[in-house]
Each structure stands twice: as structure tokens, then as C-alpha cells.
Amino acid sequence: MLSEKELHELRKVLLPYLSLLEKTATSVQDQDISNYPVFVLYQQEENAGLGIPVVAGTPENEGWSVNVSTLEELATKKVVAMENVERFSSVYKTNPEALCCLVWKGGAAQIVFIPGTGEEV
Length: 121
What we know:
Elements: H1 4-14, H2 18-30, E1 37-42, E2 52-55, E3 65-70, H3 71-76, H4 85-93, E4 98-105, E5 108-115
Parallel strand pairs: 1-4
Antiparallel strand pairs: 1-3, 2-3, 4-5
């Protein structure tokens, strides 16, 4: 589980990409692909199987790659259990300005909401 400090550091690493990620999330919603875009953040290639690549890992971003996925894909691939989909969507709706992220770190995954460009940390 990511600590508050690790989340803050992750947001700092993602800061140059937040505008791109916000535009990507808006595009997913505006094109009726999904009401629930989810960004998959990972540093190891074995976690690359979800979504479509948006940001490639580089030394500048500490090797973090970002793919855009959806709640529907996560449920279909059993990353989010079907019985948790409704709860997930209600939590998602309470964070409308934040970016929903599935962060893979140290072999574990965690859903977090990272403040977007219009929000202070």
C-alpha cells in the first residue's frame, strides 16, 4: 500500500503529464468509451497488459509508464471483482476532478485518486 508520502512523490513525477492525462480521461468520456477512465501506472513490463499506452517510462519519470483503461476492462479482466463495480463507480463519482489510477508497485496493485492540475495536494 502506498503511503501518503509515496502518493505525493508519485504526483510530483506525474506533474508534467497531468494535463495530457486529464485530456485523455475527458476524451474517453466524451467519446462514450466509458464514464470511468482509469490510468494504469506501472514500472515493470509484466504489468503492461491493461489499457492503451499514454506515457512511456523514462529516467525522467522514474520509469513510470501510464496506460489508459476503463472500469469495464478492469472488471472484464477480473482486476476489479464484479461485486465491487457498483461501489467502485460510486467512489469514482465522489472524486470528479481527480485522476483514478491503478498503481502497480512491488507486486501489489492499489486504486488511488491523484489530484489533477486544478487541485492542490
